[in-house]
Each structure stands twice: as structure tokens, then as C-alpha cells.
From TrEMBL:
<dbReference type="InterPro" id="IPR007370">
    <property type="entry name" value="Glu_cys_ligase"/>
</dbReference>
<comment type="pathway">
    <text>Sulfur metabolism; glutathione biosynthesis; glutathione from L-cysteine and L-glutamate: step 1/2.</text>
</comment>
<dbReference type="GO" id="GO:0006750">
    <property type="term" value="P:glutathione biosynthetic process"/>
</dbReference>
<comment type="similarity">
    <text>Belongs to the glutamate--cysteine ligase type 1 family. Type 1 subfamily.</text>
</comment>
<dbReference type="GO" id="GO:0005829">
    <property type="term" value="C:cytosol"/>
</dbReference>
<keyword id="KW-0547">Nucleotide-binding</keyword>
<dbReference type="GO" id="GO:0005524">
    <property type="term" value="F:ATP binding"/>
</dbReference>
<dbReference type="InterPro" id="IPR014746">
    <property type="entry name" value="Gln_synth/guanido_kin_cat_dom"/>
</dbReference>
<dbReference type="Pfam" id="PF04262">
    <property type="entry name" value="Glu_cys_ligase"/>
</dbReference>
<keyword id="KW-0317">Glutathione biosynthesis</keyword>
<keyword id="KW-0067">ATP-binding</keyword>
<dbReference type="GO" id="GO:0004357">
    <property type="term" value="F:glutamate-cysteine ligase activity"/>
</dbReference>
<dbReference type="GO" id="GO:0046872">
    <property type="term" value="F:metal ion binding"/>
</dbReference>
<protein>
    <recommendedName>
        <fullName>Glutamate--cysteine ligase</fullName>
        <ecNumber>6.3.2.2</ecNumber>
    </recommendedName>
</protein>
<feature type="domain" description="Glutamate--cysteine ligase">
    <location>
        <begin position="10"/>
        <end position="379"/>
    </location>
</feature>
<keyword id="KW-0436">Ligase</keyword>
<dbReference type="InterPro" id="IPR006334">
    <property type="entry name" value="Glut_cys_ligase"/>
</dbReference>
């Protein structure tokens, strides 16, 4: 354990510090495709019984009209998992002859033209969200946008940052110190996030309809299933969110200013292939919001983001520039097809330990090629993570993945012990033990379990994922919401529909002017 981590843990293992460990907030965003009972992509509009995708705070859509997104509030501990389960129960009770796809990689997909883009109504903001998604289709294709994942939002209590700042004798504004700490967390996440992909990656196979232009380096498991034998997460591999434009963008996480400057340049700098296509098609209709490297900052497909809650109509980049980092969003998590929610308390508790380790551990600047080495370690793990004797680059020296992983878990152990002492429980130490077992035996990882299931049952990826979808639907149906919970959801659905109606009834500015003002607000 390095000296900084040891000193910070000693500070937090006090009467004043221990309560602050559990005082931070956690939130989960889970995406899931709507599919028919036969496992085909649902072509139906977003169900009115789920409210307005534009205005409902917890049930919306992501890229496609068929791609639901569930959003929990920011809550303490693992309460967000309980809320996520309630959202699932309500949603599935309202879906007619449809289910939620259980995996990150999509169901068998129709032709690109038949994948519906999400619609958000006739207000200016609703149309802007639709045009942005048209731009994503133009730039990356619709197929890639049907991949689903889990985003995990994590914050530490501001009093914890104040305690650390006081102990370290650091002068200056507390919010600036907090932003620096979150950026330091992100640097360490970049160093060590390959471990999350090994432990929790769950997408080693996919339906061949996803590969529009041949199977590439993938192997054939059966006529409809492609895979890589040692892969942990094809979702996060080169098959996922990649483009020449985004590869030209390398945000620096050495401070908040360099990060925001990188994104500002990306949303302000034209990219020649996009400029050649233009913002409007031959018929004069909008097809992308801008011709820049990114239309908006959310287009940057990173594995982790610094975030700040936005005010009404505010851009995420503007919020960061104005008020600093408030929390971080982990974006690289696969949906575990064996779990009804795609995530469980064991994984959530390990994420808490791991992110505290990234936050409290020493975090030097990413220099001398370490940034590229971290990217390479991540990509090696998602495509070859369970390969025996796989070597990663540990600050210029080769090291076995399993050995480095055990080193990290050993350094996480004092954090797990402190969390257990602070909570008067024994919840976090068993979580670490479960992850050590996966490093000792790769067959226990979700990715290995998926491939084992496919080989044993001979049902192919689509058949396996559909079977799991049916199991999850039955699980949620066994315990419906109580009347009070049901009434609360019904009220929120009605309110969201009313809000959209009022928004569309209000006087709107000219759409072109609205887009110009929106894009200009990040300056």
C-alpha cells in the first residue's frame, strides 16, 4: 500500500471519517432492448403506458425507439438497486407481448433501415434529440447503437473532500480540490479498469446479424453465433463504439481544464467526412446537428466521464466549466445476462471498493506513454482477457493479468475492511474473495459462463439470451409492485405526458435558431 493511501485510510478510520464513507450517492442507468416474444427487435413505438420518453425522469429511451433506458435517482448504498428493480417490475407489467433483452449485444437485427430511431415529439428539444440520433446513424450506423450497457454513477460526500483537504493542508477552493480528486480518480480508473472487464465482462459472443460486413476476426460457434474464445466484452472492443473521428480525440485527464478544452475543440472543429455530408440532406432535411468531430459532448464514447447535474437547458460541458465535477459515470459495464437487473449487489459493492481505491490511491499524471498503454491493456482484456498467461503492460514492464489483478485486490482489502467496520457488517470482504476466485479460475467469470452455456445447450447466442429474457420476465412477475408503488408510477407517467403536451403547446422559436443557440451555449 502506498503512503498516500495508507494516510487517507487512517484519516477515514476515525469517528469523524467513517460515516462519510457511506454518505456518498450511487445511481444506475440500465439500457435494454424491447424484443418480441420470438426475440426480434420490437418495431412498436415507445409504449404510452410508460409515459413520455422526453419527460419521464426514470423511464426513457436511448438511441432507438426500441432501446429503453431506466434511470434511478442518486441514492445512498445499494438503494439504487432496489429502485432499479421497481422500475423493471413496473415496465414489464406494462409491456404487451414484449420482453427486455437480457444481454448487452443485441438480438437478431433487421436491415439498418428498419431499426427505428427514438422519437421525442414536436417540441424543439424533442426534435433536437431526434436529429442528434440521426447524426449518430449517419456517422456510426444504426446497428452499433443497439448495443446496451449499464452506467454506474458514483459520488463521494463533499465533507469527505473537506476532511482530506484539511489533512493535506491544501489551500484554495473546496470545489476545485474536489474536481482535482475526481480527475485523479479517473486517471486511476484508466489504469486499472481492465480489471472490471475481466471480472464482469459478459459479452464474448454475438448474433451474426450484428456483423454487417462479414465476421472479421470472430470465430463461428454455430451458424448464427460469432465469438472470440478468450473475450470478456466484445461490447467494449473495436467492434463497439469506434470511429476515425473519435480516435483523433484524446482528452487528457491530467486536469479538468485540459479535459473540457479537448471536448470543446471536438464540438467546435469540423471533421472533413462529416462536412462533406453536411447538416442537411439533398432534400433539405436535417441529418446531423453539426459537421464537427462531435455533434455534442455526449457523443464521446468514453469508459468513464466526469459529470455535474445540469440545470434546465444547460449543456453538460457548460455545467462542468461553471461548477466543477460533482460525480463520475462509469460507462464500460456489460449487462450480465444471468441477472434480472443485469447487475447485483455483489458487483455494486465491488464497484464501491474499486472506485474508492481509484479515488484514494496516489494518481500521478498519465505521461511517458502510460495513457496509450492503459488503452492497450483495456483492449487486450476485452478481446483476450481469459487467455492463459496473458501479459499486460504495468508501467513499462510485462506482468501477468492474473498477478496484477491479485495485487490490486490485495491493495483494495483495507478499503473493504474499513467499509465493513464503518457499517458494522461483513459484506465487502466476501465480495473481494469472490473476485479473487475469478482470477484464480477464469471459468467463474460471466464471459466464460456465457460461452459454457452456449456450448452445453447448443442454442446459440440469440436462443440463450431469449431464454434468459423469459426467465427474468417470470422473476419480476412473481412479485408485483404494491398498490402504493403502482400508484406512484402511474402518477409519474401521467405527469410526464402532461409535461410533454405543455411543452409542445408552448410557443416555439424557429428550430434552426434553437439549434444554433444550443450549439453556441457550450462556448
Amino acid at each position: 500500500m502506498n503512503k498516500l493511501l495508507h494516510r487517507r485510510l487512517a484519516l477515514l478510520d476515525t469517528q469523524e471519517g467513517r460515516p462519510l464513507l457511506s454518505a456518498g450517492l450511487r445511481g444506475i442507468e440500465r439500457e435494454a432492448l424491447r424484443v418480441t416474444l420470438d426475440g426480434e427487435l420490437a418495431q412498436t413505438p415507445h409504449p404510452k403506458a410508460l409515459g413520455s420518453a422526453l419527460c419521464h425522469p426514470q423511464i426513457t429511451t436511448d438511441y432507438s425507439e426500441s432501446l429503453l433506458e431506466f434511470i434511478t435517482p442518486a441514492l445512498s448504498g445499494t438503494a439504487c438497486l432496489q429502485e432499479l428493480e421497481r422500475i423493471h417490475r413496473f415496465t414489464l407489467s406494462r409491456l404487451q407481448n414484449e420482453r427486455l433483452w437480457s444481454a448487452s449485444m443485441p438480438c437478431p437485427l433487421p436491415a439498418e433501415a428498419e431499426i427505428p430511431i427514438a422519437r421525442y415529439g414536436n417540441s424543439n428539444i424533442g426534435k433536437l434529440k431526434y436529429i442528434y440520433r440521426k447524426g449518430l446513424a449517419l456517422r456510426y450506423g444504426k446497428t452499433m447503437q443497439c448495443i446496451a450497457g449499464i452506467h454506474y454513477n458514483f459520488s463521494l460526500d463533499e465533507r469527505l473532500f473537506a476532511l482530506l483537504q484539511q489533512e493535506e493542508g491544501t489551500c484554495g477552493d473546496l470545489q476545485d480540490y474536489q474536481s482535482r480528486c475526481y480527475i485523479a480518480l479517473i486517471r486511476n480508473f484508466r489504469r486499472y479498469s481492465w480489471l472490471l472487464m475481466y471480472l464482469f465482462g459478459a459479452s464474448p459472443a454475438l448474433d451474426r446479424s450484428f456483423m454487417r460486413n462479414g465476421q472479421g476476426e470472430l470465430k463461428k460457434l454455430d451458424e448464427q453465433t460469432l465469438y472470440l474464445p478468450w473475450a470478456t466484452s466484445l461490447r467494449m472492443s473495436d467492434l463497439g463504439y469506434q470511429s476515425a473521428a473519435q480516435r483523433s480525440l484524446t482528452p487528457c485527464y491530467n486536469d479538468l481544464t485540459s479535459y473540457t478544452d479537448s471536448l470543446h475543440r471536438a464540438v467546435s472543429t469540423p471533421w472533413p467526412p462529416y462536412a462533406a455530408q453536411g447538416t442537411h440532406n439533398a432534400s433539405g432535411k436535417w441529418q446531423q446537428l453539426s459537421c464537427n468531430i462531435l455533434q455534442i459532448e455526449n457523443e464521446y464514447y468514453s469508459s468513464i466521464r466526469p459529470k455535474r447535474v445540469t440545470e434546465n437547458g444547460e449543456r453538460p460541458l457548460s455545467a462542468l466549466l461553471a461548477r466543477g465535477v460533482q460525480y463520475i459515470e462509469v460507462r464500460c459495464l456489460d449487462i450480465n445476462p444471468f441477472l434480472p437487473l443485469g447487475i447485483d449487489q455483489t458487483q455494486a459493492r465491488f464497484l464501491e471498493v474499486f472506485l474508492l481505491y481509484c479515488a484514494l490511491q496516489d494518481s500521478p499524471l498519465l505521461e511517458d506513454g502510460e495513457c496509450q498503454a492503459s488503452t492497450d491493456n483495456f483492449l487486450q482484456t476485452v478481446s483476450r482477457g481469459r487467455e492463459p498467461l496473458l501479459m499486460l503492460n504495468q508501467r513499462g514492464k510485462p506482468v501477468l493479468l492474473r498477478d496484477w489483478g491479485q495485487q490490486i485486490l490485495q491493495q483494495c482489502a483495507p478499503i473493504a475492511e474499513l467499509l465493513d467496520r464503518a457499517g458494522g457488517c461483513n459484506l465487502y470482504n466476501p465480495v473481494l474473495a469472490a473476485q479473487r476466485a475469478k482470477l484464480e479460475d477464469p471459468a467463474q467469470t460471466p464471459s466464460a459462463r456465457v460461452l459454457d452455456e452456449l456450448r452445453q445447450n447448443g442454442e446459440g447466442f440469440a436462443g440463450f439470451a431469449l431464454k434468459q429474457s423469459a426467465k427474468h420476465a417470470a422473476y419480476f412477475a412473481e412479485k408485483p409492485l404494491n398498490p402504493e408503488q403502482q400508484a406512484a408510477f402511474e402518477a409519474s407517467i401521467k405527469q410526464s405526458l402532461n409535461e410533454q403536451s405543455q411543452l409542445e403547446a408552448a410557443k416555439q422559436s424557429r428550430f434552426d435558431d434553437f439549434v444554433s443557440a444550443w450549439l453556441g451555449s457550450a462556448k
